[in-house]
Amino acid sequence: MTDYGSEKMAEEERNSSAEKLKEKANNHFKDKDYENAIKYYSEALELNPSNAIYYSNRSLAYLRTECYGYALADATRALELDKNYIKGYYRRATSNMALGKFKAALKDYETVVRVRPNDKDAKMKYQECNKIVKQKAFERAIAGDELKRSVVDSLDIENMSSAMVMVEILVQVKEVLTKLPSLVEITLQETEKLTICGDTHGQYYDLLNIFELNSLPSPTNPYLFNGDFVDRGSFSVEVILTLFGFKLLYPEHFHLLRGNHETDNMNQMYGFEGEVKAKYSSQMFQLFSEVFQWLPLAQCINNKVLVMHGGLFSEDGVTLDDIRKIDRNRQPPDSGPMCDLLWSDPQSQNGRSVSKRGVSCQFGPDVTERFLEQNKLQYIVRSHEVKAEGYEVTHSGKCITVFSAPNYCDQMGNKGAYIHLRGSDLKPEFHQFTAVPHPNVKPMAYANSLMQLGMM
Ligand SMILES: [Mn+2]
Fold first, then answer.
1. Would 235 disulfide with which of 1, 90, 204, 348, CB 3.0-4.6 Å?
2. What's the CA-to-centroid distance between 342 and ligand 1, angstroms?
3. Which residue ranges contain the repeat TPR (predicted)?
4. How far apart are the first and last CA of the chain?
């Protein structure tokens, strides 16, 4: 046999092995086991790196695991390999939508509509995306005229007949939050115990279950909820009202930190804006948005444990004082310490990498070590990532993740967890729990229709 012939056979063999791996990955995907799906698509791509479908399928798996940066890169690669691959345009558009890059998404929907002028679904997505782009442009135009107009200041409270309690709570919570620094510092006495919870994401019945298992908040049973209270779960209004109610009851013993989902871009895509509009009004959503901007960004316990939603920074040298000085009353910027606190994730290898999410960065154990040393801290607690056991201890015990939305989005099968911290030793003690049933309103029911389709 000629060299050419045997090379060709080897290639055919590789391609057929790759196809088998793809089938395996597809089956994991169907079972919602996205991690293994990604693993086998990646192996398939190692054998056959010129297959647009593999990239496109892996892109969808990344979308499901909220790795929008990777999803975008894979969709882009699929299109480089085959610019007529329609699914690739959809995937890239969805990734861009998730990242709040609506104009880029619109371009891809435009392409699909041009190639398939009779495709009704494509047309609908194009129109929906176009609507958002126009709405954003309109909002920017208004913002130019009336810089940071306060909804609280412009409410005609006496003439509002419904939703008064909600408004009252929000106005009062804003007052409480504005008095807090961007870095809240508390002291736990020897005998005191604090409960730290991670993401709750609109899973109201699971939140009630936490209070059932761990008792209601009180001055002797303090809590810290570490952001991402809203979006995805369809009971976000109930979650945030409950948390804000406790904040008013026990302002010194019930703590709330901002997550990347307490922001306008996320709320528009992932359901909270839609839910508030459906249950109240668009003005009520603006009021929420105004209050969210005052949520503190980090909390330090006994000068030893630092808690934030996302994680550490894109650059070394950030001090607690730098966090104190952050002017947080805004939508988070695309980079810098405020963005990092809300968005970054830890990684197992040293150094920093590009974020799988497409925002902020990933930081390694050496980064954590240096930060803790410089700021004389013992460890950090963060949330932001779903974990099978509800929590994860990494970076030699110096970076702890806690996530409190069990069976996230009704489909991840994960446990939830919360942490007990005692003033006496500050050792984290983990408690796990499983999901409880909820009324039949599915997660993402109020989300932007393009995201619902993106979730599929
Ligand atoms: Mn988050």
1. 204
2. 7
3. 18-51, 86-119
4. 49
